[in-house]
Amino acid sequence: MMDVAKALQLARDADVDLVEVAPNSEPPVCRLLDYGKLLYLASKKERESKKGQRSTEQKEVRFRPNIGTHDLDAKTRKIREFIGDGSKVKLTVRFRGREAAHQQLGLSVLKRVADELKDEVRLERPPTMEGRALSMVLIPALVKTEKGEEGSPEEKNQDQVEELADAKT
């Protein structure tokens, strides 16, 4: 416990600031420190915490049920690029008019893409109908797996991709 005037004099003598760190406590708690350095360290800590956070983007690639082989290959290359960047990819097959009656065509398109990318992706969400669109979400497969871990989530998701490929045959 110290008088405010005495604490201010100590701060001037030491060429530092008197900073109130706990104003709501009884009595209020103050410390002698360099306020500029305190602000710098706080901003540095905030930058470090933001650095660790990575927001994953979700990209969408749209298909039609009767897409050509070359067009499908071009879109698959684009999906590979998105997955390589670490983004989620939503694959959507849009149906128009009477095409909606032939959902198996859309499933076969998604199956072909899943077959082609099965080593690079995991299935986050299986194919589902959303109005007139059939969509599924793929995420990058994690290459860092622990040895000896049986039935890891990555393997289960990989199995789902393979099941999707087998089931739609």
TrEMBL record:
Residues 57-140 form the Translation initiation factor 3 C-terminal domain. PANTHER family: TRANSLATION INITIATION FACTOR IF-3 (PTHR10938), TRANSLATION INITIATION FACTOR IF-3, MITOCHONDRIAL (PTHR10938:SF0). GO terms for cellular component: cytoplasm. This is Translation initiation factor 3. Residues 46-63 have a biased composition (Basic and acidic residues). It comes from hydrothermal vent metagenome. Residues 46-68, 144-169 are annotated as: Disordered. NCBIfam families: infC. GO terms for biological process: ribosome disassembly. Residues 2-48 form the Translation initiation factor 3 N-terminal domain. Keywords: Initiation factor, Protein biosynthesis. The keyword Iron does not apply. The lineage of its organism: unclassified sequences, metagenomes, ecological metagenomes. Belongs to the IF-3 family. One of its GO terms (molecular function) is ribosome binding.
